[in-house]
Amino acid sequence: MAQKNLFPKKLPFRDDRAPIFVIDGSSFVYRAYYAIRGHLSNRKGLPTKAVFGFTQMLLKLLREMNPEYVVVCFDAKGLTFRHDMFKDYKANRPPMPDDLSVQIPYIKEITRAFGVPILEIEGYEADDLIAAIASRMDRPIVIVGGDKDLFPLISERVVIWDPMKDELIDKKKIKERYGVEPQKLIDVRALAGDSIDNVPGVPGIGEKTALRLIKEYGSLEEVLNHAEEIKQKRLRENLIKHAGDALISKKLVELNDKAPIPLEIDFYRKRPVNTLKLRELFLELDFKKLLKELPATKTISYEQYKLVLDFEKVKEIVEKARKAKVLALDLESDTKDPMRGKIVGVSLCFEPPKAYYFPFRHEGLEAQKQLPWEAFSNLASLIEDSSVKKVGHNIKYDLILLARYGVTLKGLEGDTMLASYLFDPTRRTHGLDELSEELLGHTMISYKEVTKELAKEESFARVPLEKAKVYACEDAHVTYLLYEYFWPRLKEETLWKVFTEIDRPLIEVLAYMEMAGIKIDTAYLKEFSREIAEKLKKLEEKIYAVAGERFNINSSKQLGYILFEKLKLPKVKKTPKKTAFSTDNEVLEELSLHHELPRLVLEYRTLAKLKSTYVDALPKMVNPETGRLHTSFNQTVTATGRLSSSDPNLQNIPVRGEEGLKIRQAFVPEKGFLFLSADYSQIDLRVLAHYSEDETLIKAFWQGEDIHRRTAAEIFGISPDEVTPEMRRMAKTINFGIVYGMSPYGLAKELKIGRREAKAFIERYFERYPGVKRYMEQIVAEAREKGYVETLFGRKRPLPDINSPNRTAREFAERTAINTPIQGTAADIIKLAMIKIHQVFREKGVGTRMLLQVHDELLFEVPEKEIEEIKKIVRQIMEGVVELKVPLKVNLAIGRNWAEAKA
DNA sequence: TAAGTGGA
DNA sequence: TCCACTTA
Description:
The protein has 903 residues and is α/β, with parallel strands linked by helices. Among the domains are: 20-174 and 256-268, 3-Layer(aba) Sandwich (Rossmann fold), CATH 3.40.50; 305-492, 2-Layer Sandwich (Nucleotidyltransferase, domain 5), CATH 3.30.420.10; 528-627, Taq DNA Polymerase, Chain T, domain 4 (Up-down Bundle); 685-824, 5' to 3' exonuclease, C-terminal subdomain (DNA polymerase, domain 1). It is 49% helix and 11% strand. The protein has 37 helices and 22 strands. The strands form 6 sheets. It has a 6-stranded mixed beta sheet. It starts with 19 loop residues before the first strand and ends in an 8-residue tail after the last strand. The protein binds a DNA duplex (8 and 8 nucleotides) through helix 24, helix 26, strand 15 and helix 36.
């Protein structure tokens, strides 16, 4: 919203006083509403198309014209003097649609927030107000609008600017276009009439004839006076017969300039933009792009940030903090990995804008100025005091770091990162800095900025205390402000339940799992790596021999050259970005029918991937202190509510094929322990059965049938015992496709059949499972109406494209609408089970630890003696965690490694 | 379909 | 940044 004083449009006025820009508000509201295709709504389902279009127009005007005087005119409610005169005036106009009228208050608020005065007077239409301003304000006037009805107002002193067409219409233009003075357009319209506004006019006369007549006689009255002279019979008769109508019409279309408008120029003065208010409105309306363009206006003062260097002061602050409503807390460490770093300092904020930084382990010249480590216990006692509510941003990190110092955080009120995620799980990131920028309008100091004078390998511990203070205090401060932002919003929605009953309690469970880690057999992996290296070497030589030259097989570019240029193999398809020809699995599979090279490359790739991603990478990530692998479970990444795992990702460890199993064998329990794997059987399909209430599906699950076999029997129209393995495989793919929201196209590709055939399969499926079809139609309709979908527990996912005019985008949103409630509900179910299991484990004080979650599977490390007890607990909790219309079923397996525990 | 990782 | 590949 740069307020540069540029007048890019040359305004054709002799008068060089600043013009008044008079905006035809009502016409823009309608234009935005009807002109923008598709549908736009915010996360709550409020339609926003007109607000958006209007806002863009206003922005364009303010940017390009930078007006000193400006006003938006709106139609007032109720009848105008025109109705008194002619009761059918505008009788053909339908009333304002509901989904437009709800937007009007927002449009007005935004206008005010931009500092633009609003004019609205009972009994008058916007056009009349504009006419009054144009004729009675002695100033240059720019009417902002595009409506032809306003053309008669144009004069030496009045022009019209249409920001949408970017067209400036002045007197000269009108004369060129119509050949008459602007005011005469009234007479033209009176003769021609207007069916939209129900202005009668004279039958048989259109704009062309009207113009000709007015040009000839000068005015409507003169035309009527000379009606007798007109040669054409029909025209003459009509003019004489309908002279009265024509005169009434003139009264109707004549713009009334008598409206009691404010005459003081000060009323029209542009006021400053209220960025805070705009931000609030844009946030509510979900105008993300506009939000980003708002300047960061909020300046947070760092003046009240205190560096605490004195033990006595620590005690004082801790005592004060105990009485705080909520304490925002942030730990500074020297690594990103909470399983490795040490605590360098602690920041607190409980009375914003005050905040405190407690440095403990900084390095360098100032080290001796810091707090003695004993002071940390004072903070620890505060952190362990469950009566003091804490919030943090990504608090799991702090939880783990603290736990390594033997400190257990109690009284967790929540996590602002999680709050942001629940509020909109499709956001790209939930980083403190981005949220601060976008939601608070405050630009934070970046980590990069703070550490820029440091050498590459140096950590936060090397940051000078003053600088560290500002950075750390700002983190705690902004966290507090985000807490104030999100909490009321979460409480307002169904999200509060998901937050307090699922995601918040899960934080601690995940922290435990990450801290537990998992053991891998590094010696075994080393040996395996050597074996693969050998195989790769042989394959490599063979590939070079077949290709006739040496090249980098890992480079898809070089491989593409060999396959398509040198060997002239058919180019099957392009890469998704269309920048090159694809060399992916599917393509190589097909090409292997023509040549032996693709097969070899396929084999090489599988092995190379296995080696680099798993066999070689995993041992490097073993924590030297614990001797185990500690993944990080991210709770705020996926759009559906699933978890994700990284550093390393333990949710995509291979399972298929011989080599895959060999890698799973490297994951082993501690001595004296066994692995117990518990996975939900067909949880997605069971959730689908619950949602759809499909009788066949529900019955199949209650009878414990093999669901893919049942599906095969249904779609092939045979009995279950007649189903061949091939049929079952196809049915399985279809079930899979339904749950993952696969398109008919995707299904065709997966089954390697024609698209029509795939479509026929899907149709057959819907015939046999009509409830599923009903569910899909219903959920898509609901999504269209609300603009979002939700899980059984109220977790939401916005679907902005659900009404998009772009078919691809819309269909994608539709598949998402079908899939998210299913996958998200399944994710909620397993999260709930994890929370309960963790709780029972702690109550019973068992030695068993939950190690991993892989979407529908949990992996435990169980002392041999506890096996039977734990099996019982796990099954009972997982199967009983919610009651659906179908039973939940869990498969348990025990093993001395992860491969065994899968069978 | 979605997410993470490795290699160029 | 793009591509390919692993899991669910």
